Amino acid sequence: MFKSAGSVERLVNQLARLPGIGRNTRLAFHILKLSKEEAFELADAIHEVKEKVGFCSVCNNISETDPCQTCSDPSRQQDIICVVEDSSDAAAIDKAEGFKGLFHVLDGRLSPLDGIGPDDLKIKSLLERIKNNNISEIIIATNPNVEGEATAIYLSRLLKPMGVKVTRIARGLPVGSDLEYADAVTLTRALEGRQDI
Amino acid sequence: MSIEKSEAVILKSFNWSESSRTVVFFTLNFGRLALVDKGGRSLKTKRGRLIPFSRMEITFYHSEKESRGYISDAELLEVFSMEKDGGLGRLAYSSAACELLLKLLPEEQPQKQLYHYLVSFLKHMEKDDKKYLPAVFIAFYLRLLSQLGYHPSLAYCASCGNDINNTTTGNQVFFDVRRGGIICTTCQKPTDDYISFPKETYKLLSALQTASLNEAATLPIGYQKAALLLEVLTKFIGNQTGDSMNLNSLAFIEKLKNGQQ
After folding, report:
1. B202 phi and psi, to 5 degrees?
2. Contact (CB, 8 A) for B204 and B138
3. Residue B153: what are its φ and ψ, rounded to 5°?
4. What residues form DSSP beta bridges with B62?
5. How many CB pairs under 8 A join A and B?
6. What is the 8-class DSSP label of residue B129?
7. Looking at the complex, does the CB of residue A145 fall below 8 Å from at least one CB of chain B?
8. Are B1-79 and B86-261 in the same CATH fold?
9. Into which CATH architecture does domain B86-261 fall?
10. A101 neighbors A82 (Cβ within 8 angstroms)
11. Integer Cα distance of B221 and B201 in angstroms
12. ipTM entry
């Protein structure tokens, strides 16, 4: 086993906490080979991101300001909220530039296996937003897996009595894929969600 | 490197990198098996999707250098949808069944009868009216315990072995977690702790122990009664295995019920 100085060992241990890295000393040695300026720049960036970035009190998305840039942008459609599981989902939708409304980050999904129930998600703040603002549509964009669907069903039951239009993102074939490689469930969903052209 | 194939149902998956995960399967040919699904979370993966609560055929191999196995292909055979009316209950009870198997199944020991039983259970969860779901789950729970050697003694006294119906008086029945079953009136000791429940509830539990899933799917059990029976089973199996058998999925049902009140 690799024997190293305590500080290197500490760095290896900290890097191992990141997803997909493990106790690999290669990254630690790469950091050791960086110049002092480069290494401090990396450390500063980590420090700064933890100091400055927090959560938007309106949509719960990660942000350097409160409210976040999206919530305070008047050019965005203020009456449509897209509900997502995590900030990374909001970033992916925003990057696609097809949606100009607002977001609401649930911070997870209902999961019986992990014991995550409705009270563990940011659902109350979503209900407050709908009550206090003139919201016309809620788009539920939770992941198209079993737990994401369960969350969508739960939310739709909760939101429909509030008189707001509740929609679900379409499920089907990824652009650029081949039909012959699609599984039966995806194909069925794609046919169910067919549209006029 | 040996390549194997088996029919399987997912019990649980854990993400462990940007696009990969470890998936624990209940396979028909190999029993409980944990395999690495490399790149499986990515949309770019070329092989079939792994969908919980579905019957699928998986192809996998064990690397010679490492002890773990890797999934190389997956084909969906039958998907059980939990989206029908009462979807959250269907999902929670199906998850609870998977959680139980995850806790109780020994690794890599085929349990073909139990595998087929799980598949029929999932079919019931998909199709049955929601008022029958608790009874179907309790019947599955009891059969699972019996198949794995943890048969709670419900028909005969867990202490003296006499028929409970001939030796129990009064309207209450007493379950001794430590002895693993019902205790008749003669064997009860005032110093021992028992879980007591009405005779009518005992008859239901006893009927579910021998009922097929089809028979259980005709018994509407209210939430309160189901919660009591599940508490008995959870304490019983917890005592037998020495591990906490509190299931997250059942706690999830509790959370939903509390949220509705």
Report:
1. -60, -45
2. no
3. -85, 105
4. B2, B69
5. 75
6. -
7. yes
8. no
9. Up-down Bundle (1.20)
10. yes
11. 10
12. 0.75
Look up residue B106 and give its DSSP letter. Answer: P
CB contact under 8 A, B76 and A112: no
Cα gap B77→B89, rounded to integer Å: 24
Helical (H) or strand (E) element with B76: strand B69-79
Sequence ranges of the domains in chain B: 1-79, 86-261
**Residue in the block written with tokens 């607002």:** A102
Angle (CA) A140 A142 A143, round 5°? 145
Encoded amino acid at A185, one letter: V
Residue A120: closest CA among A106, A131, A104, A139: A106
Q: Which domains does chain A have, with CATH numbers?
A: 6-52 (1.10.8.420), 75-168 (3.40.1360.10)
Distance from the A97 Cα atom to the nearest Cα atom in chain B, whole angstroms: 20
Contact yes or no for A20 and B255 at CB 8 A: no
Task: Say if the Cβ atoms of A118 and B255 lie within 8 Å.
Answer: yes
Q: Using CB atoms, which residue from A114, A118, A181 is nearest to B248?
A: A114
If you write DSSP's letter for every residue of chain A in order, what string do you get? -----HHHHHHHHHHTTSTTT-S-HHHHHHHHHS-HHHHHHHHHHHHHHHHH-EE-TTT--EESSSS-TTTT-TTS-TTEEEEESSHHHHHHHHHHT---SEEEE-SS--BTTTTB-GGGSTTHHHHHHHHHTT--EEEE---SSHHHHHHHHHHHHHHGGGT-EEEE---SPPTT--GGGS-HHHHHHHHHT----
Cβ contact A106:A89 at 8 Å = no
Q: Measured between CB atoms, does B130 come within 8 Å of chain A?
A: no
Fold of B1-79: OB fold (Dihydrolipoamide Acetyltransferase, E2P) (2.40.50)
The nearest CA of chain B is from the CA of A111 a distance in Å of 8
On chain A, the residues whose CB falls within 8 A of the CB of B16 are 19-20
List chain B pLDDT tens, one digit each, 261 residues: 689 999 999 999 887 766 788 999 999 999 999 999 887 777 666 666 788 899 999 999 987 777 788 999 888 899 898 877 767 889 999 999 999 999 999 998 999 999 999 999 999 999 999 899 999 999 999 999 999 999 999 999 999 998 888 777 778 899 999 899 999 988 888 877 899 888 889 999 999 999 999 999 999 888 889 999 999 999 999 998 988 888 999 998 888 877 654
On chain B, the residues whose CB falls within 8 A of the CB of A19 are: 15-18
CB B49 within 8 A of CB A171: no
Q: Residues A105, A68: contact at Cβ < 8 Å?
A: no
Find chain A residues with C-beta within 8 A of B91's C-beta. 112, 146-147, 150
